[in-house]
Design goal:
Blueprint lengths: L1 E11 L3 H15 L2 E4 L9 H8 L3 E8 L3 E2 L9 H14 L8 E8 L3 E6 L7 E4 L2 E10 L2 E4 L10 H22 L1
Antiparallel strand pairs: 1-3, 1-4, 1-5, 2-3, 5-6, 6-8, 7-8, 8-9
Length: 179
């Protein structure tokens, strides 16, 4: 199944060069981004991530132009590989062991938004190599619907609208591939 890769990039505003470098390194992996959100400030994230990354923290959501296979066992680029490569980028851009960027890859298919993480908890399914996936949205009724565990920032209408645009782009791309 072909899906559209997405990324949430959380970064310290005081290190814009690290953010730009992260985007450059991601482009080397997935190619160009076709959708980029506005820059968000979610103060509630600074309590957890601010201890490691400092403040102020900003977040940008992106989608890759190139579609990938959802199958974590596929030879090509897939969600499992994207998470592992993203973790390498985070490590490369760290300062004295502390991250300056946090990259959360995921993917949109016709019916969902999934995020990948290396943290195990209920409701997440194992992809392999220490990586789990979690459904953040389910599409029905013409909109992405939150689940009871959907992250607070993903519940924001502006964020949800971004992922609806990603889904629309995916559907157009899939129709083009069928021709």
């Amino acid at each position: 199944m072909r899906v559209k890769p997405t990324f949430s990039v959380l970064f310290n505003k005081n290190f814009p060069d690290r953010f730009e470098k992260a985007l450059s390194l991601l482009r080397n992996i997935v190619g160009n981004f076709d959708l980029v959100s506005e820059t968000f400030h979610f103060p509630h994230l600074e309590g957890y991530y601010g201890k490691e990354m400092g403040t102020p923290l900003l977040r940008v959501f992106l989608s890759a132009e190139r579609l990938i296979e959802a199958d974590p066992c596929s030879d090509g680029l897939n969600p499992l590989k994207l998470k592992l490569l993203s973790m390498e980028i985070e490590k490369e851009l760290s300062i004295e062991g502390s991250r300056t960027v946090n990259i959360d890859p995921g993917w949109v298919d016709k019916h969902h938004l999934f995020l990948t993480t290396h943290k195990e908890r209920g409701g997440r399914f194992y992809l392999g190599r220490g990586v789990f996936a979690e459904m953040e949205y389910l599409y029905f009724g013409g909109d992405f619907q939150d689940l009871f565990w959907t992250y607070r920032d993903y519940r924001q209408r502006e964020v949800k609208n971004f992922f609806l645009r990603v889904r629309e782009k995916l559907l157009r791309q899939l129709r083009e591939e069928e021709k």
